[in-house]
Amino acid sequence: MTAHELHEMMLEGERFRLDENTVDRILIGDPDKPVSRVMVTYIGSMDAVEHAIAEGCDMLISHEPVFYTHRQEMQALDGQDRHCLYYQTGMAKVRRIQQAGLVVARLHDAWDFKPYYGMQERWARWLGFEGEPVARDSRDYERAFDISPVTLAELAERVAQRTALLGEPAIQRIGRPERVIRRVSLGPGWASTVEGGHRLGADATILCDDGNYFTGDIQLALDAGHSLIRVNHATSEEAGVIGMAEFIRDHVPGVEAIRHIHPAFFTIVQGKNAE
User: Fold this and answer.
1) What is the residue-wise DSSP string for 203-263?
2) Which residue of 37, 124, 156, 173 shows the fewest CB atoms closer than 10 Å?
3) CA distances, 275 to each of 160, 164, 229, 271 (Å)
4) Distance CA 225, CA 188 (A)
5) How many other C-beta atoms are found inside a 10 Å radius of the C-beta of residue 269?
6) CB under 8 Å to 82, separation ≥6 — which residues?
7) Measuring CA to CA, which residue among 192, 253, 202 is closest to residue 5?
């Protein structure tokens, strides 16, 4: 199987969601290269590239950007000032990928919605929200689930127990801890929003840290009495990366999938006298 054939297989069934602006494409490398070992990852960092090379992988599939901007990555990189950090760092990564003969591709737009294996379903199920959602937004990004009434504090503890298994043991709880939660909304990555959760009738929204701002979105939620649980973006996507590896295992005989795991991109440091 070639890199192109594998990429096409993983897009199958979701093409109706894609257009000419999709980021789901091969970025670097020979699309006709035969592949027998593939690395899947949340984001194509230099660490992920080096791991793929060390593991003898033919291909690296990244959900989020490899070159620092979501759309038109290669064009954006080429348009930078040749002396800036963006260009020099990006081109060092390009040269390393080309030197190793690695094929690098994005799998984002289609994988957010992929049934069973994709970001949306895997994140909800990882957190324990099973079955059909009671509400969806018009684009099907955000979904809401009714739950047995719990306080925000209890719900946050449950979420933290699950995110700890993905490398993030401490999460952010925003809102009154005693507030009773009966409906929760969430979506993949940036797609989970305060406004979206409100429209779905949720009492609380689970969202990621780099898709909102404390001076805007979070202050809005606090003023509106809408509760939030905030996790790192990598954490919210890792269950779907597990799904990528499982899809290849289940549907692509002769190709081995390896995960490059990205735990939360920070460490919580507690002062010695803090309680």
Assistant:
1) SEEEEEGGG--IIIIIHHHHHHT-EEEEE-HHHHHHHHHHHHHHHHHHH-TT-EEEEE---
2) 37
3) 19, 20, 21, 9
4) 23
5) 6
6) 88
7) 253
Helix (H, G, I), strand (E, B) or coil at 32: coil
What CA–CA distance (Å, rounded) separates 88 from 230? Answer: 33
**Helix/strand number for the chain, H first, E second:** 9, 11
The encoded tokens of residue 230 equal: 């905030």
Is 152 in contact with 181 (CB distance < 8 Å)?
yes
How would you classify residue 150: left for phi > 0, otherwise alpha for psi between -120 and 50, otherwise beta? beta
- Cα angle 154, 160, 166 (rounded to 5 degrees) comes to 160
How many C-beta atoms surround the C-beta of residue 49 within 10 A? 23
pTM of the complete model? 0.94
State the CB neighbour count (10 A cutoff) for residue 36.
12
Q: Output the CA torsion 13→254→23→95 (10° steps).
A: -170
Rg (CA), the chain: 20
For 151-201, what is each residue's pLDDT tens digit?
999 999 999 999 999 999 999 999 999 999 999 999 988 889 999 999 999
- Taking a C-beta distance cutoff of 8 angstroms, is the pair 42, 237 a contact? yes
- Cβ-based burial of 160 (10 A; exposed 0-12, middle 13-18, buried ≥19): middle
- Specify whether the CB–CB gap between 122 and 162 falls below 8 A: no
Q: Assess whether pLDDT exceeds 90 at residue 3.
A: yes
Tell which phi-psi region holds residue 14, choosing left (phi > 0), alpha (psi between -120 and 50) or beta. Answer: alpha
Name every residue whose Cβ is closer than 8 Å to that of residue 209 and which is 6 or more positions away in sequence.
172, 230, 231, 232, 233
Question: Residue 229 half-sphere exposure, CB side, CA atoms within 13 Å?
Answer: 31
